[in-house]
TrEMBL record, chain A:
Name assigned to this protein: Peptide ABC transporter
A single GO BP: transmembrane transport
UniProt keyword annotation of Cell membrane present: yes
Subcellular compartments: Cell membrane
Organism: Ahrensia marina
Lineage: Bacteria, Pseudomonadati, Pseudomonadota, Alphaproteobacteria, Hyphomicrobiales
Ligase in keyword set: no
Keywords assigned by UniProt, alphabetized: Cell membrane, Membrane, Transmembrane, Transmembrane helix, Transport
Length: 315, 283
């Protein structure tokens, strides 16, 4: 296990380096000169020349990359053109919303996805299964922003149960009650992902149900419910647990659309707004942070998976 | 099995998938004949009749410029087909070629597949956003961006499937009979991959619609003047409380089309070579 972990960590490093190079190149691929883009239309030639020197843009590209990487490793992601503050603090400001949203979404995914998936698998082939499987596919076919808009229309505008937009921090007035701002967004984000989990729980339970140990359990006269929960579900859970991890890793970037619909001050909306504002240092920083998070979480899930399932070969 | 025979046998006995297929045919017809069927010019402004309720002569009502929603929806079908087919072609051509070549030429494969791994470190929507930042908003660029995003998964899948086929006896036989690399790849291996590719194509088509709609909604997809279902939703969202039907029609059209494509993809998948079944996953 230790050797496997070390090996996986070692293979992560070149991928991370390559991904960081891509993120770095991103600003240089933008048509036009970064210094004049950053300064805007009103800048004079001298100002542009000065910023070019300050940013080290007159150096060879590979030198610039290593200077940038060195800064990144020291936690310096540059300065936002729009906010005039360090990029890292701009990202940190959105972290609370994004993390809470992702956690709440995961709660819905588990609460909705697992029971319906189990039901679907135990009723395999019956009408209940057909309705839930079809329903799951339908849910995954809905554009998230459309669902979000109609949830606002029904539950905020119509019934007035939940606020329609924004999210004050939990440390502001209201405290934990502020979580009600995240109910509709988290449900919106959960819908397509819960659909995936339903299909996955169903598929992995049906896979396990075909195995010999399940047949033995049935043959020795165990109650069907007992077989379904202790023998099938528990084994199917390994694959499902891994899917939870991957889903969580993807939520931060999937939240881009949902955060925009509900005007949440999270990292996802920051990405879109920075793109619209052409705030390149922030775009670069956010993408780097999301990609690193995504890769690290995926690695952790893989490691956890290998530990949970003794049949996984570590080679 | 030929591609033409694939569809009837996949749809046999599957009512819902058959309805889905018929819906897609309808969308295709609307796309082709939008210019003939549409009762109004999709761009024609009529400020007097803005936000009209569904009825006659405006079947789906009018938007905040007084444009006919039904006619715009018909032209939107055209965009749906163009974006879907375009993304599928870009993804399958680039991703498919990378996957097949990587599996066949092992040394090249090490290099290329590491590149694919790096691209896959970027979540799909994020990668689309990054690419769109570098390009201008246009139909072609939207297709390229979505195509590239799904080229990575396609490359992975085709890599796996080509590796499986590479060790088959019929490939050895082709090598022994002196066939060239090109002939082995495209005349012996590729024909075996056509039906799984068709399944992958249907899932990419479905995903592409959702991604394109999301990009439109964020204001980073098709140019705003293009009548697409995503743009219709994006433009009319502030009128949700005053004219809720304006968002209902384009939304339902997207949902029905994506759902249908997923159903058809699922039906096709159940009919392909069992060796490849687990390689491709849709929703």
């Amino acid at each position: 296990m230790l050797a496997y972990t070390a090996k996986r960590l070692l293979t992560l490093i070149p991928t991370l380096l390559a991904a960081s190079a891509l993120v770095f190149l991103f600003v240089h691929l933008i048509p036009g000169d970064p210094a004049s883009i950053l300064l805007g239309d009103t800048a004079t030639a001298e100002e542009v020349a000065q910023l070019t020197r300050e940013m080290g843009l007159d150096q060879p590209l590979w030198v610039q990359y290593f200077v940038w990487l060195g800064n990144v490793l020291q936690g310096d992601l540059g300065t936002s053109v729009f906010f005039k503050t360090p990029v890292l603090s701009v990202i940190a400001a959105g972290a609370e919303t994004s993390i809470l949203l992702a956690c709440m979404t995961m709660v819905w995914i588990v609460l909705i996805g697992v029971p319906i998936g189990v039901l679907s698998a135990t009723m395999h082939g019956k009408w209940v299964d057909q309705v839930t499987s079809g329903g799951a596919m339908l849910a995954a076919s809905i554009p998230t922003f459309w669902l979000g808009l109609y949830l606002i229309f029904i539950f905020s505008v119509g019934l007035g149960w939940f606020p329609s937009s924004g999210f004050p921090s939990l440390s502001d007035d209201g405290g934990l009650a502020n979580l009600r701002y995240l109910v509709l967004p988290s449900l919106t984000l959960a819908a397509p992902n819960a659909a995936l989990i339903i299909r996955l729980v169903r598929a992995s339970m049906l896979d396990v149900a075909r195995e010999d140990h399940v047949r033995t359990a049935r043959a020795k006269g165990l109650h069907p419910a007992n077989v379904a929960i202790k023998h099938v579900f528990r084994n199917a859970l390994i694959a499902v647990a891994a899917a939870f991890g991957f889903t969580f890793a993807a939520l931060i970037s999937e939240a881009v659309v949902t955060e925009t619909v509900f005007s949440l001050p999270g990292i996802g909306r920051l990405v879109v707004q920075s793109i619209l504002r052409r705030d390149y240092p922030v775009i670069q920083g956010v993408i780097l942070v999301i990609v690193v998070l995504y890769m690290v979480i995926n690695l952790l899930v893989d490691l956890a998976y290998a530990r949970l399932d003794p049949r996984v070969s570590l080679k | 099995m030929s591609v033409l025979k694939l569809m009837p046998s996949a749809l046999a006995g599957r009512k819902l998938a058959t309805i889905g297929f018929l819906w897609l045919v309808l969308v295709l017809l609307a796309a082709v004949f939008a210019g003939v069927i549409a009762p109004f010019d999709p761009l024609e402004l009529d400020p007097v009749n803005r936000l009209a309720e569904p009825g006659w002569p405006h079947l789906f009502g009018t938007d905040h410029f007084g444009r006919d929603t039904f006619s715009r929806a018909l032209y939107g079908a055209r965009m749906t087909v163009i974006i879907g087919v375009g993304s599928v072609v870009v993804a399958l051509l680039s991703g498919g070629l990378i996957g097949m070549l990587s599996a066949y030429f092992t040394k090249l494969g090490h290099f290329l597949m590491r590149g694919v791994d790096v691209l896959m470190a970027f979540p799909a929507l994020l990668m689309a956003l990054v690419l769109i930042t570098l390009l201008e908003r246009s139909v072609a660029n939207t297709i390229i961006v979505i195509g590239i995003v799904y080229a990575t998964t396609t490359a992975r899948i085709l890599y796996g499937m080509t590796l499986k086929l590479k060790n088959e006896v019929f490939v050895d036989a082709a090598v022994c009979s002196g066939a060239s690399h090109r002939s082995i790849l495209f005349r012996h291996i590729l024909p075996n991959l056509i039906s799984p590719l068709l399944v992958q194509a249907s899932f990419i088509f479905a995903f592409a619609q959702l991604q394109a709609a999301a990009l439109d909604f964020l204001g980073l997809g098709l140019p705003p003047e293009v009548p697409s279902w995503g743009n219709m939703l994006s433009e009319e969202r502030i009128y949700l409380t005053r004219a809720p039907w304006l968002l209902l029609y384009p939304g339902l059209l997207i949902i029905l089309s994506v759902f249908s494509m997923n159903l058809v993809g699922d039906a096709l998948r159940d009919n392909i070579d069992p060796r490849f079944k687990d390689d491709i996953s849709g929703v």
